[in-house]
Amino acid sequence: MFKKKMSMAAIIAAIGAMLLITFAAAQGELTDKELLGGLLYFDENLSQPAGQSCASCHDPQFAFVDPDSDIPVSEGVLPHRFGGRNSPSAAYAMYAPIRYFDVIEGLWIGGQFWDSRATGEVLGDPLADQALGPFLNPVEMANQNKVQVINNIAQSDYAGLFEEVWGMGSLNNVEEAYDRVALSIAAFERTAEFAKFNSKYDYYLQKCLGNGGDPAECALGVGPKAKKAGKAVFTPKEWSGLQLFMGENNNDGVLEKGEGAMCAACHVAEWTVAANNVVPDWAPEGMVPPMFTDFTYDNLGVPKSGHPLLVDADIDLGLGAIVGDPGENGKFKVMSLRNIGLTAPYAHNGFFLTLGEITHFYNTRDLPGVWPLSEYPDTVNFDELGNLGLSNADEDALVEFMKTLSDGYTQ
Q: What number of other Cβ atoms are within 10 A of residue 61's Cβ?
């Protein structure tokens, strides 16, 4: 069954979230702008009819994705209206840059949504550009216009806080107020709640760095200090999975000694400069631990979904439809693998139900008769995946390593 809006559990969760962010603000952990963004993020009165908030599809209790993992897309506030893509996680989304074209690599980089349409060029922040969309989307929050959104905020208990943050009368001009709503939500989505850096992999990084390990070597799992920390933290299968994850592969179907699964070609394990984003206190000064994405766009050859909600949908052109370039058709954002073990289903259309299934696809996509044809075959990446030659045990090890990227690890 599809979810019903405003269930008692959802109401309790929303109230709990409100109390938590208010408590955080009282402790000085949130600025007034971030607190305002949090109240907007969880407010289910900002849809028409009431019943859906940002958190409905990006729930912090479910790694900031839709709790309904049994369907590939999310139901809007109006019954039986669904979006056309799998909801990506809002966790760690803050690290995506404003979208740009790298002329050297010939790649689009950055932006939000699967297709990059929230570029960051409108409000100077991809997160804010993304937040402009759902309120007016007829299959999401279904407001007919911006006036409805702003009127509901003006009647809310936090209307005074909105004016404290943005100035007296800041709700009077609908266009300006609507942009400020998006900027406030983006400020909340740039808090530590969305970037906890407390996975098992992060614990390993801390141990490796504490042993005097080089940050780059620790991230990649190479060198004696990384190995020592890895053996102390990871299970043998997880450590094997890390090695496979980072290793290169010529994609010829034969796994030679020293080859891996080529995952890090796109899901890169590199430290990056903070750029005013959250940095954990254990990281080298000003450096962000690996995001496991290069923020580019790629066509993995994912088949068209046969799910009843998507089977009749048109071919999804992804990035190509946004940038107006047929050479980019069928390409979708390379998502961060942080929390990947918690965010099923997988791919833009939710085709894969488990992490093991999409890992098997990466490994065997090009073997005859194993998988259906790609939804858009003309731009499929045949260089870095599809015929990796991994064994079942190798696939299992990769899955176990990727699960170590889930937040909330305790020894």
A: 11
CATH number reported for the structural domain that contains residue 40 in this entry: 1.10.760.10
Per DSSP, the three-state class of 308 is coil
Q: Domain boundary residue among 178, 194, 210?
A: 194
Does 252 share its domain with 334? yes
288 phi, psi to nearest 5 deg: -100, 130
206 and 179 within one domain: no
| Gyration radius of the chain's alpha carbons | 22
Give the domain extent around 313: 196-411
pTM assigned to the model: 0.93
Per-residue pLDDT of the chain (411 residues; tens, 9 = 90+): 334 344 444 554 555 566 566 656 555 689 999 999 999 999 999 999 999 999 999 999 999 999 999 999 999 999 999 999 999 999 999 999 999 999 999 999 999 999 999 999 999 999 999 999 999 999 999 999 999 999 999 999 999 999 999 999 999 999 999 999 999 999 999 999 999 999 999 999 999 999 999 999 999 999 999 999 999 999 999 999 999 999 999 999 999 999 999 999 999 999 999 888 999 999 998 899 999 999 999 999 999 999 999 999 999 999 999 999 999 999 999 999 999 999 999 999 999 999 999 999 999 999 999 999 999 999 999 999 999 999 999 999 999 999 999 999 998
Cα–Cα separations (whole angstroms), residue 17 to 50, 60, 131, 272: 18, 9, 19, 31
